[in-house]
Design brief:
transcription cis-regulatory region binding, 299 residues, Arc Repressor Mutant, subunit A, alpha/beta, 11 strands
């Protein structure tokens, strides 16, 4: 679906179009595209007296879209200082955080908002964290981490039995909470790949490639790969145990005629892949060089 820009004869046209953009869920626009939209309206409206109102509206559309792209974390803890501190650290990691000091208010909010993870304190008035955990798990599958001052094993067992995924005892280091949150989100994404067709998932010794989403995980760590790096790794995984020549890699990825200098292009991408995978060049665990022939991943 494409956004067709209307002639800018009046304020109403801009407002109409921005509502169209804001509500077009089928549009897939990245940050750069949104910025171009915003700049376009700034440039085309800067000589009009209603520039300020339109610019604010356009900017609010962009900010709303950016918020939708962030992972959403819920914090429910009646100890305000702890909740505020955890919120600060998570926001610093670019998470979108929703914070509540009351479990009942949090539950009402949860029924209206899609979340990615919940952090729950156990000891709270009205509704305890354990009760809230049970209610969440009856309806949602996202990770739950319990935060509590209790250290008794029975509390840990009860929380995990009700569906919690992790348990952190107070006092704790905020950075530990951040690390646990990231680890649970990685696992959640990984196991949710089960809804994807088997042929779209490639696995090898802790390496998981999702061909549908172009995501690559190594030992539950998300690797930031370029499209070319992902394609090279996918081809090698699909042909595990076989040597794939640089010429074949080049042809499959670029669909172009192979020249002697093309080998340097493949070599550079292989080197970058090994660096990102922290794979040894001298004794690689994953991508092995077969001198004079090409590259392979052992079965």
């Amino acid at each position: 679906m494409h956004a067709h820009f209307l002639p800018l004869h009046s304020n109403n046209f801009i407002i109409t179009e921005l509502f169209f953009i804001a509500n077009s869920k089928s549009l897939s626009l990245n940050d750069n595209a949104l910025l171009l939209i915003y700049n376009k309206y700034i440039m085309q409206t800067k000589k009009r007296k209603w520039k300020k109102h339109c610019s604010i509206f356009a900017f609010s559309v962009i900010m709303g879209w950016e918020a939708d792209m962030k992972e959403k974390i819920l914090i429910v803890d009646d100890e305000t200082e702890i909740a505020d501190l955890v919120e600060l650290y998570l926001q610093n990691e670019d998470f979108l955080v929703y914070k509540f000091y009351d479990a009942e208010e949090a539950w009402n909010f949860m029924e209206k908002e899609e979340l990615d993870l919940a952090l729950l304190d156990i000891m709270m008035p009205k509704i305890s964290g354990l009760e809230l955990c049970k209610k969440i798990r009856e309806r949602y599958n996202y990770p739950i981490i319990m935060l509590t001052a209790k250290g008794a094993e029975i509390d840990k067992i009860q929380g995990l039995t009700l569906g919690a995924d992790d348990y952190i005892t107070k006092p704790f280091q905020p950075l530990e909470v951040v690390a646990r949150v990231k680890a649970q989100l990685r696992r959640y994404k990984r196991y949710n790949m089960g809804t994807v067709k088997a042929e779209e998932i490639l696995e090898h010794k802790g390496l998981i490639l999702n061909k549908k989403t172009h995501e690559c995980f190594l030992n539950e760590r998300l690797l930031s790969l370029t499209p070319t790096e992902f394609s090279i790794l996918a081809i090698l995984c699909e042909q595990k145990g076989n040597v794939v020549s640089a010429e074949e890699l080049f042809h499959q990825i670029w669909k172009d005629e192979y020249y002697s200098k093309s080998n340097n292009t493949i070599t550079v991408h292989i080197r970058h892949l090994r660096e990102k995978m922290e794979d040894s060049f001298e004794n690689p665990k994953y991508i092995k060089t077969v001198w004079g022939c090409g590259y392979k991943i052992e079965k």
